[in-house]
Amino acid sequence: MKPVKVGVLGLGTVGGGTVNVLKRNAEEIARRAGREIIITRASAKDLNKQRICDTKHISLTTNPLDIINDPEIDIVLELIGGAGPVKDMVLQAIANGKHVVTANKSLIALHGNEIFAKASKQGVIVAFEAAVAGGIPIIKAIREGLSGNQIQWLAGIINGTGNFILTEMRDKGRDFYDVLAEAQALGYAEADPTFDVEGIDAGHKLTILASIAFGIPLQFDKVYTEGISQITRIDVEYAEQLGYRIKHLGIARKTDTGIELRVHPTLIPERRLIANVDGVMNAIVVKGDAVGPTLYYGAGAGAEPTASAVVADVIDVVRALTSDPENRVPHLAFQADALADIAVLPPEKFKTAYYLRLHAEDKPGVLADVTKILANHQISIEAIIQKESFGDETAIPIIMLTQTTLEQEMNAAIAEIEALKTVTGKVNRIRLETLR
To answer: Is the four-CA dihedral 105, 106, 110, 111 of positive or negative sign?
Structure first.
């Protein structure tokens, strides 16, 4: 059979890594795919820039459309990133009857519904394993390996930058902004770290995971996102004392009333395997009704870990080239006409437990006032720690763990607690999940 010709859009970190893996493992890849796969063309902004890959025998261009409109190209690898002009490029490639492989989570999260509809109409595949958790094959695991299960919930560390920061805060007692500066110096965080530390990047990935887990359309606009910039080393230390660790999790849970989609700092028991995932590594726990909880761990970014997922998608596309489009694995795991219109719950309808830290005057009856407010909102207390005051401070820190409650009840209770004259400042609240 004749070789499958591939065109690469973008020769940055992921694009360069993909070229390296495809060239280095060409013989093994051909054995797996059943046909030779060769990169014939690639695009880059600067053709003279030094690269991490060998571009020998690859025709280079500064215009991605030269590749998209090349009738010889069978598969287009979109490795530029972003959701602006790239969307039009992908749609043009689909219109030209080309299969597309992308590592672009924002493109899929924001425009995937439209892209997959166009791809299905054209009978082509859009593969996106590398868009979530780098080299971890989590998309394939949920879409294929767990297809016999009803997925009940999933929770993941799906942003390495945030995990690196929280790990350093815990292990070395450092402050958030101190570690953030180091993460930027090391290249883990961008000059503008908003996407990473405020949960937007994780929100894009959670959107994709939830869609293939529950068979719902992609709905990034309904994902609740909360960052880690307000987490202090004091909270990290108190969590440790209570037997918990703070991780920035993306959580999707199917309930009787709808689906929770949320990204936020979370206390989880230190004995959980995912609580011990440190540094820039990623991990996702998926709970199926038949299989129970399963854990997927690995590198969430990097040139070759991400390239591993890109190349795996290319092999899948090549294997499917001769198959009937109606019998291929659906883009979002469920048949397009079987996606469910299940409600995505607003934050006030979330159900979870909480860690609360507040400062109150050191006098009789103050703690009773706080616990009474919580009781009035049907919020049960799991544990309380009252710390000593330091120096001339008149307020003492009180730390509480609650049992599971409705978020709207917790919001109301916190508002009443903050209104007490004996309580100073804001109540610091972090959600808590046992991940049983």
So the answer is: negative
Per-residue pLDDT of the chain (436 residues; tens, 9 = 90+): 899 999 999 999 999 999 999 999 999 999 999 999 999 999 999 998 999 999 999 999 999 999 999 999 999 999 998 888 999 999 999 999 999 999 999 999 999 999 999 999 999 999 999 999 999 999 999 999 999 999 999 999 999 999 999 999 999 999 999 999 999 999 888 889 999 999 999 999 999 999 999 999 999 999 999 999 999 999 999 999 999 999 999 999 999 999 999 999 999 999 999 999 999 999 999 999 999 999 999 999 999 999 999 999 999 999 998 777 777 888 877 878 888 889 999 999 999 999 999 999 988 899 999 999 999 999 999 999 887 765 556 789 999 999 999 999 999 999 999 999 999 999 999 999 999 8
Report the predicted TM-score, pTM, of the whole model to 2 decimal places.
0.94
CATH number, span 349-432: 3.30.70.260
Residue 304's nearest CA partner among 77, 133, 75, 135 is 135
**Taking the domains of the chain in order of start, what are their residue ranges?**
4-135+303-336, 138-299, 349-432
205 catalytic residue (yes or no): yes
> Of the residues 205, 247, 254, 287, which is catalytic?
205
Six token digits for residue 158 = 């799906």
CATH 3.30.360.10 fits 138-299, yes or no: yes
Q: Indicate the fold that domain 4-135+303-336 takes in CATH.
A: Rossmann fold (3.40.50)
